[in-house]
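Might you be able to check the C-alpha cells below? Thank you kindly.
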Amino acid sequence: MIIAIDGPAAAGKGTLAERLAAHYGLPYLDTGLLYRAIGRRMADAGADLDDPAAAGAFARALAPEHLGGDLRGREAGDLASRVAVHPPVREALVAFQRAFAARPGGAVLDGRDIGTVICPDADVKLYVTASAEVRARRRTDELLAKGRAVDYDRILAEVRERDARDSGRVVAPLRPADDAVVIDTSDLDRDGAFAAACAAVDARRTRA
C-alpha cells in the first residue's frame, strides 16, 4: 500500500505521515528533506541557489547521509522551496522517491507532488491543508516555545509567499490530486487529523 500525502508548509502533514506509517507498519519518507538537504548544502558551499545547473549537480550527488542535521527550520524550508523549482533537481530526485515507494509492502511519502507526479497511482492520496492564518499561528507558537523571538505577521507573510511560489511554479505545482481526499486541519487537533486520515485510508482499502 502506497500512501501519498501532499500539502502546504505547516499544515501538519509530516506529523500525520509519521503517525500513519507507524500505524500501518510502513516505511516513511519525508521527501521535503531531500530538497532541504540540497538547499542547505548549496548555501553552505556558497553556490547560487537560483542556478538550475548547479542545483542539479548537487541533487545528483545527494546521498542518504546528507539527510541528517538541522533541516527542519524555516531557513532550510525557504532554501528547499528555491531549489525545488529547478527541473534538473526534480529529475534527479524523482527516481529516488519512486524507488522508495516501490519497495515491497509499500510506503508513506509526504511532500508537495507525491500524488500528482511521484506516485500518481498511489493507493491512497491525501491532501492536508489549513488556512494560512492557522499555519502561521502554529509556526509562530512553535518557534516561541523554542525561545525564539518571532513576529506573527512576518511569519504569515512568509507562509503566503511560499504558498504562492509552490503553487505558481511551472514544474509540478502544489495542488491536490484529482482523486485526493482533502483534510483541512484548521479546526482539527493532531488526533482529529489522524482519525480523519485513517478513515480515508481504511475506506480506500475497503473499496480496493
Summary: The mean pLDDT is 92. The chain has nine helices and five strands.
